[in-house]
Amino acid sequence: MEGEAGDFQITLIKKPKYIDEDQCTGCTACVEYCPVKYPDPFNQEISQNKAIHIYFAQAIPLVTYIDDSCLYLKEKKCGICEGICKNHAIDFNQRAEKIEVKVGAVILAPGLEPYDPGLRHDYGYGQFANVVTSLDYERLMCATGPYQGEILRASDRKHPHKIAWIQCVGSRQVIPGGNSYCSGVCCTYAQKQVILTKEHDAEAECTIFHNDIRSYNKDFERFYQRTESLPGVRFIRSYVSIGREIPASKNVTIRYSTPDDGVKEEEFGLVVLSVGLNPPADYTALADKFGIELNAHGFCQTNPVDPMEATRPGIFVSGAFRGPTDIPESVFSASAAGSECGELLNYRRGKLTQARIYPPEKDVAQEEPRIGVFVCHCGANIGRIVDVPATVEYALSLPHVAYAQEQLFSCATNSAKEISDMTREKGLNRVVIAACSPRTLEPLFRDTLREAGINQYYLDMANIREHNSWVHSKEREESTRKAQDLIRMSVARARHLEPLQEFDLPVNKAGLVVGGGLAGMTAALSLANQGHEVYLVEKESDLGGMARRLHSTLEGLDVQQYLIDVVGKIYRHPLVHVYTEAAILETGGYVGNFATKVKSRGRVMEIKHGATLLATGAEEYRPTEYLYGEDERVVTNLELEEQIAGRDERLVGARSLVMIQCVGCRNAERNYCSRVCCSHSIKNALNLKALNPQMDIYILFRDMRTYGYYEDYYREAAGKEVRFIRYEPTDPPEVEPAVGEEGLGVLRVTVTDPILGKRLEIDADVVALAAAVIPSAGSQEAARLFKVNSNPDGFFKEAHVKLRPVDFVADGIYLCGMAHYPKFITETLSQAYAAAGRALTLLSHDTVVASGSVCEVNERKCIGCGACISACSYGAIEFRETRQGKKAVVNPVICKGDGLCNAKCPTGAISLKHHTDEEILSQIDAAVQP
Amino acid sequence: MANGQFPEALIQQLSQKFRDHHFGDVMVVGGGVSGIQASLDLASSGFKVYLVDKAPSIGGHMAQLDKTFPTNECSM
Fold first, then answer.
1. According to the model, what pLDDT value does residue A259 have?
2. CB spacing of A102 vs B33 below 8 angstroms
3. d(Cα A789, Cα A809) in Å, to the nearest integer?
4. What is the number of other CB atoms lying within 10 angstroms of the CB of residue A7?
5. pLDDT confidence band for A223 (50 / 70 / 90)
6. So what's the pLDDT on residue B3?
7. For chain B, what is the radius of gyration of the CA atoms?
8. Interchain proximity B64–A139, CB inside 8 Å
9. A545-549, A568-572, A629-633, A896-900: which range is least confident on average?
10. What is the pLDDT of residue B14?
11. Which residue of A217, A738, A792, A857 lies most exposed, with the fewest beta carbons within 10 A?
12. Predicted pLDDT at B2
């Protein structure tokens, strides 16, 4: 790569697949006949694949490629595939191709490499057949895995019934070849594997050998409890070592310590190593090529206040190359990197992209229905269970079906093209696709119909995968009959489908950001830097939110100085309008066209905006425990931080200080982990040790949840003799005023040390409580006003945990920061950029498309009872005064077409287009009358 | 005017060179879940994206996972 931000020249080498991708249909006839088998990398080399094969069943592009193990490539022998392929797609003459690309910016998302436990021989991996990594196990469980979803042991291809997981393999290990950091994902993925194992085999005995359980993310604590409560599941807190392999059974023993009986050795049928996350395999070469710096762990060096930026301008980074990362963060850091690219390249936005042009839509409303049925094999997902050819035959026998065929993967690009080609060629005016759930692929197939020149609502999908082959995998004949029933129902409905029009709505280019903390300000600046007017609303008189109470971070950021910089940028930016001491009075409208009334310093104004970002933050819990509020020597973590920053004399001179973790959360009332408190306490402890190395500091904890790089600071604190004592929630510490050794007043903290097995008494001058992070009052108010959802703990609920982590279900509204869940400044900033990036996918367009499948009121039948209005979760229905009295009217732009109102309407006045009674009743009739 | 100042051959040569180059706004290196999301967001907000991956398919490690926590949905 050469050049600089805005003008990079990149040279790529495109490796040969030895396949003409335009000719390959993914039929896999070549794979059948290929004589060469080699270990399949996608299945972790547990099973074999052919030298020519498709990378995995749902690969994109869905074409074959030829691996180096091919006989022809090695010795110019064989070439069978060339003769088999009807499309002449095999091309052994392909050579590596050099491609030059000029771009303005680069996003590096090379991901991670799982830790390889074979390198250190300390867990028997590669030596004992029945020791696997967690990624191996992932493939073993998967329906597309080496044994089609049967969990089998390598030694005897039998189901293991007693399985052990060993946590922290390659993580939290300061040894050659190990990683000092915590990988952050293994505790929860191991729990997931236990839950799934119990689904495969309810009798399975599952044991997790662990250190701290780090359920620090949203809904993870409940997930942990769910796993723990399953029968036959044990969590054992112990370091372990692999013992031996039993020669006859090939079972493997694990040695672990118990509090009562000393060291035990136990036999397991299968051992799963919960391996951590390493940087991508070729990280040094990658860094050299792109001219970026790496951190000490080999991940990309980033700036804590600009967390997506690599050290070279114009190069951004997202996902696990930034450090161990879970899926939601991989996704939102990608949106964030997108927004940062947008700031850099805003001047050229839209110059290289082209709008898609569809053929004109044919009016077929008056024609007799001519239905085409396409039955998908979904590789083997459907085809292995359902007799697809017989089902195609059956479809052809149904009334109005003019054409039917089978397809290997209907969703593949060539298959979609085949659907639109056949629709035109055979003059079809309705299409039924018998494949998977419409949830994922309906938009793609609607697009296919538009390509074919007919209205996109002339489509129905018969779900013969989730509703059929996946749940009836043992009943082949019945599932074939069920597939035929489902198709008959879809065909019956298709006859009644009507063409519907979607409409374009104008998009107001401005954004409203609610909450002027670091999240809100960062999102506001990113939007404004991409040319959008932003209204920033803050209830306090000063901007800054929670960050106003923070002074340092573990990475060494001076938070107050940074805050001054950001606030300055906000006030200087000509496109950002700030309203402080502000309250939102009311808000309405819909995606692209919102209107919100804001009262600020006595003035009320109406703001029109296309997108809304909610960054309403969180608060610190005010403890009622441990004498807080009664004795001034008991403070919260934030108060302690304030005193440290102010060099409070009494604090700095303290001889002994006790920190108590998990105050007000991880309990029945707040069943979640506040995520930041463990590291926050470590930070305060290290800062105190720097001020007064003589101070005795104790941290009383349940699990130390210093995930990711924070683990290094935990180790540093332990090295500086901060003492860590674990306590059980059933036996929490007690704090009481007492008189200490020298006759001075102290706080006496009593706690049971589970390692020593006895009660300890610690006399402390100060007790600091790691008080929970709780949802802010502002968030609850915003949830009510903007009609968005919160989770049971009161934090905003995103549209999809993994795939839409900063969107709300309601279109045009986004979230970021602590209102989503407690998080660190760096994480908050990533999420703020992400929310801005997502908002840009809306605001950068002039129009937004509204669905045609919406509700409609027949005013003649409406009696004005209002049942529909209370049923609607989106506020899409209002009353309108008419000469016949009050009548309900649907705003089609807000309506989501969920049909809740239809079910409530006592007179049948409301109908949902595309799901009319006629369509649904015809389906039911077809179901009961074969 | 151009013809007066630039010989036809040079124009041909320059435009050929232009055609041999791929012009885009952003290159995304890695087609796992993060790279895919970045590409989709950028393309949806008006940028031309080149998405490159070393494997024969996009999907990355997430494609290898059976289900994903904490909702235990199919990762595909």
1. 82
2. no
3. 8
4. 12
5. very high
6. 41
7. 21
8. yes
9. A896-900
10. 56
11. A792
12. 39
- Contact partners, residue A664, CB within 8 Å, separation at least 6: A621, A623, A625, A670, A771, A772, A774
Looking only at the bridges linking them, the beta strands covering A277-278 and A315-317 are unpaired
B5 and chain A in contact, CB less than 8 A: no
- For chain B, what are the domain ranges? 23-74
Looking at residue B13, its pLDDT comes to: 62
Distance from CA of A141 to the nearest CA of B (A): 6
Query: One-letter amino acid identity for A330?
Result: S
Calculate the dihedral angle through the C-alpha atoms of A34, A36, A41, A42, rounding to the nearest 10 degrees.
Answer: 20
Question: What SS3 string covers A472-526?
Answer: CCCCHHHHHHHHHHHHHHHHHHHHHCCCCCCEEEECCCCEEEECCEHHHHHHHHH
Residues whose CB falls within 8 Å of the CB of residue A21, separated by 6 or more in sequence, listed in order: A61, A63, A89
B37 touches chain A (CB under 8 A): yes
- Alpha helix positions (H), A177-316: 186-200, 220-228, 283-290
Paired residues of A506 in beta bridges: A847
Q: Which of A103, A348, A350 sits opposite B50 (nearest CB)?
A: A103
B11 and A CB contact within 8 Å:
no
Beta partners for residue B73, in sequence order: B68
B43 touches chain A (CB under 8 A): yes
Distance in Å, alpha carbon of B7 to nearest chain A alpha carbon: 26
List of chain B residues whose C-beta atoms are within 8 Å of the C-beta of residue A315: none
Alpha-carbon span A278 to A183, nearest angstrom: 8
Q: Which of B20, B23, B36, B42 to mutate to test the interface with A (most CBs of A within 10 A)?
A: B42
Specify the pLDDT at position A675: 98
What is d(CA A820, CA A804) in angstroms, rounded to the nearest whole number?
13
Q: Determine the average pLDDT of the residues in A672-681.
A: 98
Q: Tell me if B23 and A102 make a contact (CB, 8 A cut-off).
A: yes
pLDDT, one tens digit per residue, over A865-907 is 999 999 997 888 999 999 999 999 999 988 989 899 999 999 9
ipTM exceeding the 0.85 mark: yes
How far apart (Å, rounded) are the C-alpha atoms in residues A104 and A863?
Answer: 60
What's the rounded mean pLDDT across residues A279-285? 95
pLDDT digits (tens, 9 = 90+) for A341-375: 999 999 999 998 877 889 999 999 899 999 999 99
Domains of chain A: 17-94 (3.30.70), 115-277 (3.50.50.60), 283-347 (no CATH), 371-498 (3.40.50), 511-518+538-617+776-845 (3.50.50.60), 634-773 (3.50.50.60), 854-912 (3.30.70.20)
A/B interface, count of CB pairs below 8 Å: 201
* pLDDT band, residue A437 (cuts 50/70/90): confident
Cβ atoms A796, B66 nearer than 8 A: no
Q: Which of B22, B62, B65 sits opposite A102 (nearest CB)?
A: B22
Contact A335/B22, CB-based, under 8 Å?
no
| Amino acid at position A459, single letter | L
CB nearest to B76's CB, from A58, A65, A189: A58
Question: For residue A267, is pLDDT > 90?
Answer: yes
Highest mean pLDDT among A297-306, A767-776, A841-850: A767-776
Residues in B closer than 8 angstroms to A104, CB to CB, are 24-26
CA gap A270, A157 in Å, rounded:
12
* 3-class secondary structure, A376: strand
Give the C-alpha separation, A132 to A272, whole Å: 5
Per the CB < 8 Å rule, is A107 touching B43?
no
Nearest to A334 among B37, B64, B67 (CB): B37
CA-CA distance, A917 to A448, in Å (whole number)?
A: 26
Reported in sequence order, the residue ranges of A740-851 that DSSP labels E, i.e. its strands, are 745-753, 758-764, 766-771, 773-775, 813-815, 847-850
* Rounded CA separation A813/A33 (Å): 53
